[in-house]
Amino acid sequence: VPTGISAIQAVNVLKGFSGVKKRPALVLARLAKNDLILCQITSRSYADLDAVELRQESFCEGRLISLSFIRPGKIFTANLSIVESCVARVRQDVHQATVRKIEALLNSGY
After folding, report:
1. Sign of the alpha-carbon dihedral angle for 67, 72, 76, 77
2. Distance from C-alpha of 79 to C-alpha of 37, rounded to nearest angstrom
3. Residue 59 half-sphere exposure toward CB, CA atoms < 13 A
4. Alpha-carbon distance 46 to 93, whole Å?
5. Quick one: three-class SS letters along 32-74?
6. How confident is the model over 62-105, as pLDDT tens digits?
7. At 2, is the pLDDT very low, low, confident or very high (cuts 50, 70, 90)?
């Protein structure tokens, strides 16, 4: 499974008692022991002013089925073992815009 930075991975996420559901996530960094730092991607903006919109032109490889949003305030870690596949790869400027928004959130003091 390709896990380079800017890759969008299909991550298997536990959904309570209903089992496992695949969700896309942006790879921000690959860590030791096959761990990844990921950022949530959703098809809903949730009126999130920090969300980075993903349109078809946002990708350099692959695509997502519908208009989606990277949520810079929703960062998580996961092991490579729950990653199913590489779905797409965002352009470098989209990845950099996401990182800048994460940095701004971390520096905001909230």
Report:
1. positive
2. 9
3. 20
4. 23
5. HHHEEEEEEEECCCCCCCCCEEECHHHEEEECCCCCEEEEEEE
6. 999 999 999 999 999 989 888 888 899 999 999 999 999 999 99
7. low
21-65 per-position pLDDT tens digit: 889 999 999 999 999 999 999 999 888 999 999 999 999 999 999
**Which two three-digit tokens encode residue 32?**
């030791």
pTM for this predicted structure: 0.87
Q: What are phi and psi of 63, to 5 degrees?
A: -170, 170
With b for 16 or more beta-carbon neighbours within 10 A and e for fewer, the 37-73 pattern comes to: bbbbbbeeeeeeeebbebeeebbeeebbeeebbbbbb
Residues 6+ apart with CB under 8 A from 72: 39, 50, 51, 52, 98, 101, 102, 105
